[in-house]
């Protein structure tokens, strides 16, 4: 494929922005230990998308995204309510919300697909993502929202750092915990909602989880982790989208996830902080240092009886 | 049996077997592991199909069990290397699922196995794909698979009931008593995978999570006894299957989606009115306690 068309360039550019923003938000979710919450929220967005379409009867991205945001937030609220008001644990609550909302989404989707004109709505593209089906307006929306997210993170970097790593101190200096919590949830939902059209509800979470974990293998500094995660997310978005355009009707989401998984594997092996290769080298160096000292063997370790 | 009869029987078997496994699942705090396994089972099925070029029960069960175990092992391996448990689950299953979907889209793509099927099952096709069983006559292949899985899973739960109970509630005590905790863990992972693939044809990769987790969570709100919870959970599963089928018939929509939604309704009802752990009962008790304190 030589010489990308103008439209393809637009798709790649907006995927770059989306991947970058998802990489940033993913770092927050990673440190809040809520990686799988993003999975639950992404699945929970499906009924909202379909209802947004059904109300208007035609495809209007802003309305569908609004529906998606509403149902994802409802899902987040339900997870919190189940955990707070019953003895069901958080992971079970997330599983319930994820699968029940998705089931409702499929019910509604099947009904809408039978409506006149519903079959061509491209709603099925929301499940595995169909970047090729996006029109210029959609890409503008996506790029603009991703840019806002980037800006928010850059401006309030210090606040996020405090909130994530020392919430008690953050409250102490007057940073509202509830405000930050609300901002975090909004950020997460906004990224998921603009991402599902291109990546799909099922695999959207991967774009939030994998870059952040990969970045963790290269650094211990939060700022560097954010930058790397953004880079990895953007790279995976562009690479996956490009590959998916090579075939006819190939879904975008799975290819993006596989690209991200490739980055993760490289980081796992060669990462300079915790990578397997570095660890093996350190181990060898340590063994070499210990050898000449002729360590006395511990009799207990040999399984002998106590004296 | 009639066409609808077979579908109802299939759906009920899915509800029953998922309910039984699900009860242990949520007590062992592995809801998210089930989420992961039910997704990666897809890869096992696709690879089994690519190797044998047929969608038969035995191959699929084998492929799925392997994929499920692979997921469990990979998650454990990454976790041991310092990745958060949640994050390692998220990485492993999304990747395996993505590979499965890409293989379907690029290699398989035919009438037998498509992305739609992987996602929501094809319960309406099940009565047509029959097989001959001595003594029973012509029965749908999916029903036969589900019956075998029900026997195996139910048998394993009944045979090692005491061991499941101890390893679920107090793994440290179980280890001290000499029960092979790690072996039971991987055995359980295999049971989840096999259950997920048996239910796959009927409800697909995502809705099976609803069938596994939600009836069990609802049962968990009604009782404190494991035996009662197992029974209730299986019962709720069957109930959701019937309710979902009825709703799908009335609204003319996806049966598997309606079944998943019905489990949610059952859970919501339990959450609100269960006499032991329901919201209303909790409020009433709190109110009564406040009254006693005041007087």
What's the short version?
The complex is a heterodimer of chains A (307) and B (295). By secondary structure, chain A is mainly α.
Strand content of chain B: under 5%
Shape of chain B: globular
Largest sheet of chain A: none
Overall pLDDT of chain B: 87
Protein model, in words:
The complex is a heterodimer of chains A (307) and B (295). Chain A has 307 residues and is mainly alpha-helical. Chain A has one domain (6-291): ABC transporter involved in vitamin B12 uptake, BtuC, CATH 1.10.3470.10. Helices cover 75% and strands 0% of the residues of chain A. Chain A is built from 13 helices and no strands. In chain A, helix 1 runs parallel beside helix 6 (136-155), helix 2 (35-56) packs across helix 9 (177-199) and helix 11 (222-244) packs across helix 12. Chain A is globular. Chain B has 295 residues and is an all-alpha fold. Chain B has a single domain (3-294), classed as Orthogonal Bundle (ABC transporter involved in vitamin B12 uptake, BtuC). In chain B, a hairpin with a 3-residue loop joins strand 1 and strand 2 (137-140). In chain B, helix 1 (3-27) runs parallel beside helix 6, helix 1 (3-27) crosses helix 9 and helix 2 crosses helix 9 (181-220). Chain B is globular and about 75 Å long. The N and C termini of chain B lie far apart (65 Å).
Structural key phrases:
heterodimer; A: 307 residues; mainly alpha; ABC transporter involved in vitamin B12 uptake, BtuC; 0% strand; B: 295 residues; two-stranded antiparallel sheet; 12 helices; 2 strands; globular
Q: How are the SSEs placed, and which strands pair?
A:
The complex is a heterodimer of chains A (307) and B (295).
Chain A: H1 6-31, H2 35-56, H3 61-85, H4 90-114, H5 125-128, H6 136-155, H7 157-165, H8 167-172, H9 177-199, H10 204-216, H11 222-244, H12 252-270, H13 276-290
Chain B: H1 3-27, H2 31-52, H3 57-80, H4 85-108, H5 115-120, E1 130-133, E2 137-140, H6 141-159, H7 161-169, H8 171-176, H9 181-220, H10 226-251, H11 255-273, H12 279-294
Antiparallel strand pairs in B: 1-2
């Amino acid at each position: 494929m030589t010489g990308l068309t103008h439209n393809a360039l637009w798709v790649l550019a907006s995927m770059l922005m989306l991947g970058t923003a998802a990489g940033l938000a993913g770092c927050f979710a990673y440190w809040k230990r809520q990686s799988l919450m993003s999975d639950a929220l992404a699945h929970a967005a499906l009924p909202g998308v379909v209802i947004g379409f059904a109300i208007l009867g035609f495809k209007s991205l802003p309305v569908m995204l609004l529906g998606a945001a509403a149902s994802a937030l409802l899902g987040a609220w339900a997870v919190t309510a189940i955990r707070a008001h019953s003895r069901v644990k958080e992971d079970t609550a997330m599983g319930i919300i994820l699968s029940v909302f998705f089931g409702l989404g499929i019910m509604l989707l099947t009904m809408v697909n039978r409506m006149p004109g519903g079959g061509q709505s491209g709603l099925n593209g929301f499940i595995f993502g169909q970047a090729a089906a996006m029109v210029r307006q959609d890409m503008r929306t996506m790029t603009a929202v991703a840019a806002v997210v980037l800006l928010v993170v850059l401006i309030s970097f210090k606040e996020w750092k405090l909130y994530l790593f020392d919430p008690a101190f953050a409250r102490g200096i007057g940073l509202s915990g509830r405000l930050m919590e609300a901002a975090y949830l909004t950020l997460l939902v906004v990224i998921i909602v603009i991402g599902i059209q291109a990546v799909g509800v099922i695999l959207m979470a991967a774009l939030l989880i994998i870059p952040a974990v990969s970045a963790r293998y290269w650094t211990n500094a939060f700022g560097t982790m954010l930058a790397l995660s953004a880079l990895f997310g953007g790279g995976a978005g562009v690479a996956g989208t490009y590959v998916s355009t090579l075939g006819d009707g190939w879904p975008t989401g799975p290819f993006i996830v596989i690209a991200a998984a490739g980055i993760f594997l490289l980081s796992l092996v060669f990462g300079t902080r915790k990578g397997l290769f570095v660890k093996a080298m350190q181990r060898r160096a340590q063994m070499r240092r210990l050898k000449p000292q002729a360590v006395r063997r511990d009799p207990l370790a040999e399984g002998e009886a106590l004296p | 049996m009639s066409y609808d009869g077979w579908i109802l029987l299939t759906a009920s078997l899915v509800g029953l077997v998922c309910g039984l496994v699900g009860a242990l699942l949520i007590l062992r705090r592995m809801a998210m592991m089930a989420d992961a396994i039910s997704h990666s089972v897809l890869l096992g099925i696709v690879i089994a199909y690519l190797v044998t070029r047929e969608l038969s029960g035995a191959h699929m069960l084998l492929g799925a069990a392997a994929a499920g175990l692979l997921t469990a092992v990979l998650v454990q391996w990454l976790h041991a290397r310092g990745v958060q448990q949640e994050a390692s689950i998220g990485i492993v299953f999304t990747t395996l699922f993505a590979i499965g979907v890409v293989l379907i889209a690029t290699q398989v793509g035919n009438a037998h196995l498509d992305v739609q099927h992987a996602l929501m099952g094809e319960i309406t096709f099940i009565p047509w794909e029959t097989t001959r069983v001595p003594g029973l006559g012509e029965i749908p292949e999916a029903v036969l698979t589900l019956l075998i899985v029900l026997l195996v899973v139910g048998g394993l739960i009944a045979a090692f009931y005491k061991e499941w109970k101890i390893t679920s509630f107090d793994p440290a005590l179980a280890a001290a008593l000499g029960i092979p905790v790690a072996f039971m863990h991987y055995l359980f992972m295999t049971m989840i995978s096999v259950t997920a693939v048996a239910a796959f044809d009927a409800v697909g990769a995502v809705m099976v999570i609803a069938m596994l987790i939600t009836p069990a969570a609802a049962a968990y709100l009604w009782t404190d006894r494991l035996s009662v919870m197992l029974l209730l959970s299986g019962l709720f599963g069957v109930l959701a299957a019937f309710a979902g089928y009825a709703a799908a018939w009335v609204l003319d929509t996806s049966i598997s989606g309606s079944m998943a939604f019905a489990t949610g309704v059952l859970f919501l009802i339990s959450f609100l009115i269960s006499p032991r752990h329901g919201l209303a009962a909790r409020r009433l008790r709190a109110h009564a306690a406040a009254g006693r304190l005041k007087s």
